[in-house]
Amino acid sequence: MSHKSNSLKQLALQKFKKNFWGVFSFYYIILVGLVSIFAYVFAPDNSQYANQMHVSIHSKKPGFKVTMLTLPSKLNIDQGFFDKLFFGKKNTDTEVPISKYEVKDDVLIYKEYASDGLEGAEKTVSINIFPSSSVKDFIKEKTFLFGTDKYGRDLLSRVLVGARISFFIGFVAVFISLVIGILMGSLAGYFGGKVDAFIMWIINVTWSIPTLLLVIAITLALGKGFWQVFIAVGLTMWVEVARVVRGQIISVKEMQYVTAARALGYDDFRIIKKHILPNIMAPVIVISAANFAAAILIESGLSFLGIGAQPPMASWGAMIKDHYNYIILGKPYLAIIPGLCIMSLVMAFMLIGNALRDALDVKN
């Protein structure tokens, strides 16, 4: 039995490897996952939430370059390596975009950057505030590959950090939906009768409420925040899993291997866990991939409505909300870039779901 199971797994794996778009989507999802985890390593702006604002250079086009002066702060914040790696640097320094500068008599004279042909303010600062009284390491040319948003923040950094919310909400929401859905579906399908009728009533009531409306209600009940959105999305996605599991268990619970397990005196919990669930996981895996995509879209919708991840946290949906009106103002990339990120990640999960469906289909 074990040899046969392994052979089926190997056959499914071989079929999956032959699906170009499935394999491509798998590696793309892995790439986005790594970017999500180590976003602050890749982001040019590694401050917390990539939230360094420079209003004087707001809404600049991709590839924009400017000379950036960093004014060091006397505040010394003790921050651990892993805290900085995964949650960003607690930056107390002040960054100032400048157009020109010169040093005279231990004084740094610089002119702030101003766009649209305006003249920036001229300011002075003592070079004694810089370590070793040297300003060379604190004045650098900075390139914004994706341009800047309406607050003058680096758009590339915000996109990279924003991937974390969209990616991990899929994992948390799918995990919650699997735990609740498999439990409820197993009880309904295996025991039937009043148990099935009661659980199906709960499923139908939950199913009748629009998903976005239910998520909004749960979010308002739990409060606005990061984890509240994750939980709210997960609590609305278990219904599909429960219906699939229930239907699969109804179709297999009278099969010979289940009857044999009952004859050997195994309890119901063991029969469900050890004998039934391993044989019905193929459609559950496929629907989980679809739920990943749905969770990302729901979170983006919530952030667009302003009840998802709250500022200053970076979120693709919130970025679209902040800049959708720029589409008609000649700077559509501010909304299109995060929109393409959402589209590509959702497409990857849908393609890998289709590839898994084909690979796990024993009829093909």
TrEMBL record:
Q: Where in the cell is it found?
A: Cell membrane
Where is the major localization of this protein?
Answer: membrane
The record's keywords, sorted A to Z, are:
Cell membrane, Membrane, Transmembrane, Transmembrane helix, Transport
Annotated TM spans: 20-43, 165-191, 198-220, 226-245, 280-298, 333-356
Among CDD domains, the record links this protein to: TM_PBP2
Membrane-topology annotation of the record: Multi-pass membrane protein
Q: Which Pfam families match?
A: BPD_transp_1 (PF00528), OppC_N (PF12911)
PROSITE patterns, per the entry = ABC_TM1
Taxonomic superkingdom? Bacteria
ABC transmembrane type-1 domain location? 163-353
Listed SUPFAM superfamilies:
MetI-like
Q: Which InterPro entries match?
A: BP-dependent_transpt_permease, MetI-like, MetI-like_sf, OppC_N
Q: Which family does it belong to?
A: Belongs to the binding-protein-dependent transport system permease family.
What is the recorded name of this protein? ABC transmembrane type-1 domain-containing protein
Source lineage:
Bacteria, Pseudomonadati, Bacteroidota, Flavobacteriia, Flavobacteriales
